[in-house]
Amino acid sequence: MKEVRKPDVAVIGAGPAGLGAALAAHEAGLRDVMLIERDIELGGILPQCIHDGFGSIVFKEVLTGPQYAQRFIDEIAKTDIEIKLDTMVLDLSPEKRIKAVNSREGVIEIEPKSVILAMGCRERTRHQIMIPGFRPAGILCAGAAQRDLNIEGIIPGTRVVILGSGDIGLIMARRFTLEGIEVEGVYEIMDHPGGITRNVVQCLNDYAIPLHLSHTVTFIHGRKRVEGVTVCAVGEDLKPLQGRERMIPCDTLVLSVGLIPENELSKKAGIKLDEATGGPIVDGMMETSVEGIFACGNVVNVFDLVDYVTQSARTAGQAAAQYVMGTRKREGRPIEVIAGKNVKFVVPQFLNNLEDNVSLYFRVEHPERAVKVHVSANGKLLARRKAKMVRPPEMIQANIPAEKFAEAGEITSIEVDVVSDEE
Which residues have C-beta within 8 Å of that of residue 145, sequence separation ≥ 6? Predict the structure, then answer.
């Protein structure tokens, strides 16, 4: 019978979240850390992100994706963290029992004292947005196109239409152009871009690539290979407007229509999920509803900056170490963090400990200019900041010093609001 491994902590996923969490747990005092990754190398999505823009918060310099990952890989190489590559986790129970498999060891049973979920997210596909038409070759998600081009060296087509304006789609519009591939345009069903402003400017405006807001693809033409797509303007209800269609010849349709936190394992473990984020409900130390299981990075909610992913990972890693060593601080009843005016969601959703500084991450529901961000409890402001512009794709971070909690007295809930600067 195979020996059951019983590490202090098992980190599932070795992208930026998993790397940061494993390193933080080790630095916090755990000496039996296991890092499990289904790919053949560490880094997650970062090795294919050859553009820059990573690390400005964590490292105070601008790095490419591979450079950012390598910083953590080099640090982990100096430790005795056990790394299991090309290993797929099949099951995670509420009792923190893990079943995994790889080609070297076969089925592996792992019973860690704590678990950190860092599985990241996946792309929404054509079938999830239900585009009518045929099923030809030449339809792929932006992340798949990025891997094909940057890792495999495969040119996906010669004339591309991009549906959706998520950050990967915007970055690939620029990447296609640099490779001599014609990008006819980027079509976004919403009335505002789905990516951060920096990418709209640097990837579309700087390369004269058209962005068509309030437009979508209504039909895909071609049986063996994409021959074209029909695009159409949409109304305020996001439904196509009759008489506003046009056919665009192309041989490739790239989809950048959103990311979904990868939470199949979370569901198997009985972890409560937040409908607004699609990820686990977590407290201020990134612990889920199942004691001893923590989550961080894009598995919790889709961050726009990898630096935020790393910050959440460090919190989860430190908290997992405290849990294993028995130094985890807990107070009484969990304090709910409420998404208030023009706030779609807030992470973490609960706070258990008000003795430490807390970082809240949230997104707005709709764009708004000249606003104030208010974090309040018992009618008293815990944090505030002004912003010239807030947009749904761009994460907002609010840092609350521990002393602010003490000044507010007994706190029953915390509310985050984004209000007009005139209010």
Answer: 156, 172, 254
Cβ neighbors of 312 (< 8 A, separation 6 or more) are: 17, 286, 296, 297, 300, 303, 347, 361
The structural architecture, per CATH, of the domain 125-257 is 3-Layer(bba) Sandwich (3.50)
- Residue 145: pLDDT above 90? yes
**DSSP 3-state assignment of 172?**
helix
CA 51 to chain centre: 18
Taking only the tens place, the pLDDT of each residue in 398-410 is 999 888 888 877 8
Q: Which helix (H) or strand (E) covers residue 65, if one does? A: helix 65-77
The CATH fold assigned to 1-123+259-328 is FAD/NAD(P)-binding domain (3.50.50)
Q: ω before 393 within 30° of 0 (cis)?
A: no
Q: Structural domain boundaries of the chain?
A: 1-123+259-328, 125-257, 332-423
pLDDT in tens, 6-38: 999 999 999 999 999 999 999 999 999 999 999
Supply the pTM of this predicted model: 0.95
Q: Rounded distance, CA 278 to CA 295, Å?
A: 13
Determine the topology of domain 332-423 in CATH.
Answer: Immunoglobulin-like (2.60.40)
